[in-house]
Amino acid sequence: MDFSFSPEQRELQAQARSFLEARFPLSRLAQLIDSEPGWDPSSWTELAELGWLGVSVPESLGGAGLGFVEEAILLEEFGRCLYPGPYLATVAMALPALDDARLAEVANGKARWSALLGPAPDLVPDLNRVDWVVVASEDQVLAVEATGEMLTSIDPTRPMGRLDQVSGELLGKGQEAVRIGRLMRERLLTALALEAVGGAQRVLELSLEHARSREQFGKPIGIYQAVSHPLVDCYVEIELARSLAYWAAWCIGAGHEDASLAASAAKAAAAGAAVRACERAIQTHGGLGFTWESPLHRYYKRALWIERFGGTSAEHRSRVAETLLQRPPTAAAASASGAAVLPEAGAGG
Amino acid sequence: MLEELARANAPQHIGVIGLGMAGPTIIAHGTEAQKSRYLPSILSAGEIWCQGFSEPGSGSDLASVRTRAELRGDTFVLNGQKVWSSYAQIADWCILLVQSDPGAARYQGLTFLLVDMHSPGIEVRPLRQITGDADFNEIFFTDTEVPKAQVLGGIGQGWAVAMTTLLHERATFGFSLTGALEAALGQLLRLAQDQPAQAARLTDAIGREWIQMQALKLTAHRALAQLAASGRPGPEGSIIKLAWSESNQRVTKLARELLPDPILDDGHWYYLQLRSRANSIEAGTSEILRNIIAERVLGLPRSR
Asked: ipTM > 0.95?
């Protein structure tokens, strides 16, 4: 039950799926993540050549001039293959803060970025894999050099560091800083939701393959409802989260006023769905699922990281409720949901 | 349309069984004569329909129905009992699943009939539920005669016809379900605004239910895109009914947490909370829906 993506969007999705499956198969992931530097920096050049770094960068700056819906398609696929690299940090987080010259450098793969949003927490994802960090506060946005101390992240594919200092060139201030900060946050939350959905879907597929092929008591274990029904619940949760993530992506692409609400809703639902899908996958795989060799722990650690980063699911649920409760009584229920239209075919951002 | 009616808190449309179940099934399996006889009055709600599928001994295992239809010449003679039939007390017609060949293999002895509820030998009795109301009925058939021309889809083809009905029940009702849930969430938010102290303790749960409602609504639209593309609802519609029933049960419970005196019957939310317990039983129990999704969507081996 896919969305009505346009033929071009479908093609992008298929292209991303086949490229990433060939370049980052599960069999390569362990070796890549467990050895220095923990990712494949040469892959960044490939992403630039594919045009995936400049999807939403204007064509005049070397980009594709598309929108967030196309970036969303890629983010879901990156999440599915657990790509270890600063794509989320550079494209989802930092882009809205960058001027033309810096956008061109992102599109051609010369500069990688991460970002720090708001006063706390002060942890920067992928700090040792990027050149620059956007530091956004309420009154100003700065470009800070990416130097600092690395810490041990719960997800080895998402190393976290603390900046040495937070001074640098001014990228925006005042109302412009507020606008940039809000857009960065909406894009981050939606990107996290998309990565979560992509990863959860892959992990569910692994569980289903195992439930079909693993036999105990002379039958495939998927025949037992104690095994199958919890997997159904994971599937339902993932499908619902996917609808929210696409809605949020569409809102951002269209500049819709519900973007912030949608991003929080999507993040809360998708992070929870991913954590539960991974936990259920480990249980479904039994002892095999608990081994270091199994890819499941890598997805689980990513899901746990997504659940924490940018605010927990519980925080976002409360934020959604508080937003709705502040609306006038008659509008509280209807307005946001009344606007809940889905992207038409080809609705880019 | 069903979504808009439900969002507006309109009373349930009296022709809902005709529009959502009988109509689509007649379109799929009816003869031209049957289509021109029944469809116009379904659309105009000039004739009301009810459904006769479940029996006291046949709930989730629908293929085991025992209401007997014996063919004598050009007439079926019905004997047996149906249960959980909404609108049977006012219905003009009934979509009825019967056993027409007790010797046949499972699924092959069933026939789907369109039965005139004004025929002699039909008795409708209201069935009281845990809410105290009687929304549903039992229908008793005693030597009720139905002309053979009233068969929909062929003698012995009843199972396939009934599956069409159930697919449409879950898929097209998806919109009225999500629309009604949206209306309930609107009422819950107004209640929360009136009770800020209680609401402040429950923002996590309120946010969770609104997000779930929104996700269901968006997913129903995605399922509709699927229906438009293929012309036939997919089993994905089952996920909406499954998730909706559990949502509605949590929402009505949560609303009562916001009331000033939840130990008292407020006359609204308490009724809805009790009524919601049927949501995970009617139109396919949650257990059956999980089996359907496991087998037909996820490709897991059959459990039965």
From this structure: no
